[in-house]
Amino acid sequence: MTHAITPLAFKPSRLDGLSAKLVSSHYVNNYGGAVRRLNAIEARLAALDLAAEPGFVVNGIAREALIAHNSMVLHEVHFDGLGGTGAPGGAVADALARDFQGVERWQRAFAAMGKALAGGSGWVILAWSRRANRLVNQWAADHAHVLADAEPILALDMYEHAYHQDFGADAGRYVDTVLRNLHWGRISARYEMARARRTVSPAAAGVPVEAVLADRESVLLVDVRLPDDYAASGLRMPGVAWHDPSRVEEWGRHLSRGRRVVVSCVYGFEVSLEAAAALRRLGFDADILSGGLAAWRAAGGPVEPI
Ligand SMILES: [Fe+2]
User: Fold this and answer.
1) Could you tell me the distance, in angstroms and rounded to a whole number, from the CA of residue 205 to the centre of ligand 1?
2) What is 12-196's CATH topology?
3) Fold of 203-297
4) Which of 9, 57, 268, 291 is least enclosed, having the fewest CB within 10 Å?
5) Four-CA torsion 210, 214, 217, 222, nearest 10 degrees
6) Partner residues linked to 241 by β-bridges
7) pLDDT, tens digit, for every residue of 57-91?
8) In the chain, what are the domain boundaries?
């Protein structure tokens, strides 16, 4: 696949304190260079039989493909965030206030991370972490450093080619200048797109173990591991009764009502899903313990010998 150049969303001559010459050169040579390099690498890859190549060739071209791809993407995010007046707004401003105890605190931290990279190179990235369900400031020493679960919302280029022509070694002034040229409308749109793409693993269904650990009395926990699994483990959650899941229709009728019933098996797969479904048919508000006893123990939940 050939990667196309993404057009600039603003006129470089309209920026405040960043010269059109600098921004144009950055766009044409460094961003354009990454896209051209990636296209050349992928064309070469398509013609190669990697299985017939020595490891150093495979490693080299795979590494260069990663670097060129990320350089392309991060430059696109960088340029897309420019062309505004620097006043945070939109949904992302609310999210920054929530995740960093204030927009001002976020901006201080983001700028400090950029200035700390002065004299070196890399990126500072405001990213939406699907795993943490929040915005994070991410440090990157080079194009290959990205947070594995995150989508970049705003990228500050700290390679010397991004500022040296206008600012010399004064990278701090460059960082402050970029911040007052940010286009929060487009940054906010990126944030909303990233949030909309949030994916939840099917394995994350059910009640999180942390919620049950935080308030044990809020639910009625029931251990529904298969008899063999129960006997083999030798461990149970303290004070939690075990019932044979194949006989849920019998014991289910005698469970106390009034609280939500949360059933747990070993990993939160079919056994507890079927038991929870049977209990719902009996009129209970029933769900599974997400991840079962394994997740309970991984979260530090207590167990005792049977
Ligand atoms: Fe750059």
Assistant:
1) 41
2) minor pseudopilin epsh fold (3.55.40)
3) Oxidized Rhodanese; domain 1 (3.40.250)
4) 57
5) 20
6) none
7) 999 999 999 999 999 999 999 999 999 997 888 89
8) 12-196, 203-297
